[in-house]
Amino acid sequence: MRFKLEREKTKTTPYILIDEEKGYMRFEGECYLEDIIGFFKDINEWLENYLSSDFTKLTFDCAMEYFNSSTAKLLYNMLRSMDIHAKDGKNIVVNWIAAEDDDMLIECGEDFKDEMESLEFNLIIQN
Amino acid sequence: MVLNMLEYTGSLKKRNINISYSGPMWEDGLKGIAEMVKSSLSSDELPSSAAKSIFSVFIEQATNMLMYSAEKEHYPKHDAESSDVSTGMLVLGHKNLTYFIQTGNVVKSVNAELIKGRLDYLNTLDKKGIRQFYREQMRGENDNPESQGAGLGFIEIAKRATAPIKYDFEPLGEGLFYFTMYVEIGQEVA
């Protein structure tokens, strides 16, 4: 059974879509004032399992609008995990989607991109 | 004794304070205040990136208070398992386009030293240095779930602040301090 998860967004938690069959994950919205570790527990578990499996590709669209520093750390750790597996030759693509006037998100995307060694990290700036 | 509300609200206004909260704080409770702050900022006709910067400082300061406040009140109805919630004070205001967020809460001396060290260090860095430090801290392996964000909150605040962070620790005795933190976020003049 391929894993599938879709979670509606709330004011303080993002929309989540994971479609293992398509090798696709998407986060969209905001994340703050939450039990971040609890919220992302199943997502993290799936990601770790998927990354250690014999998968063919993973595309991660990160279209967050705002997140707090704990969420930043969590996203960073996810990206690091992906980067390690990309180093082993796995096909992993991250699309960091930010609005053109969103300096905070663009800066964060630039810094994250810079920290990654093997990952295909696209900074997509939308107007 | 009845508090003179007109005088009280007048003194807040005189100090350019728009939102003021004092009392118990927990994550779910703060969501309502955060919502109010967000709407208030969006009605202030700021560029959306500036509003987001101010909101971000507000969230990180509120989260720090949850984390470090040593003054707890007992709220039996809140949560059966953790009915002791942090208490503190939070104000937000602005004079023209310069916003400020100030918090006040009781901290233990061990945390007072930790926070003071962190703020003193951050105040020595320029914007480039803060961004660099943020990345270093992000990289550092700190998987202790107790320290979610691993001090990143203070760095995030320093990133957005447009003046050195002001703070004060007033000794209360018995190893406790009243910690006040003042952060200013001004707009760049185009």
Q: Could you describe the 3D structure shown?
A:
The complex is a heterodimer of chains A (127) and B (190). Chain A has 127 residues and is an alpha/beta fold. Chain A has 4 helices and 6 strands; from the N terminus they run βββααβαβαβ. Chain A has helices at residues 36-39, 41-52, 69-87, 103-115; strands spanning 4-7, 15-19, 24-31, 57-67, 91-99, 120-126. Chain A has a 6-stranded mixed sheet, with helices on one face. In chain A, a hairpin with a 4-residue loop joins β2 (15-19) and β3. In chain A, α2 runs parallel beside α3 (69-87). The longest helix of chain A is centred in the middle third of the chain and has 19 residues, at 69-87. Chain A starts with a strand and ends with a strand. The mean pLDDT of chain A is 95. Chain B has 190 residues and is an alpha+beta fold. In chain B, 45% of the residues lie in helices and 28% in strands. Chain B contains 6 helices and 6 strands. In chain B, strands 1, 2, 3, 4, 5 and 6 form a 6-stranded antiparallel sheet that branches. The radius of gyration of chain B is 17 Å and the shape is globular. Chain B starts with a helix and ends in a 5-residue tail after the last strand. In chain B, 30% of the residues are buried. The A-B interface holds A 11-12, 32-37, 66, 68-70, 72-73, 76, 101-104, 107, 111, 114-115 and B 27-28, 30-31, 34-35, 47-49, 52-53, 55-56, 59-60, 62-63, 131, 134-135, 138-139, 145, 148-150, 152-153, 155-156.
Itemize the secondary structure elements and their pairings:
The complex is a heterodimer of chains A (127) and B (190).
Chain A: E1 4-7, E2 15-19, E3 24-31, H1 36-39, H2 41-52, E4 57-67, H3 69-87, E5 91-99, H4 103-115, E6 120-126
Parallel strand pairs in A: 3-4, 4-5, 5-6
Antiparallel strand pairs in A: 1-2, 2-3
Chain B: H1 5-14, E1 17-25, H2 27-42, H3 48-68, E2 72-74, E3 84-95, E4 98-108, H4 109-124, H5 127-139, H6 152-160, E5 166-173, E6 176-185
Antiparallel strand pairs in B: 1-3, 2-3, 3-4, 4-6, 5-6
Helix pairs in contact in B: 2-3, 3-6, 5-6
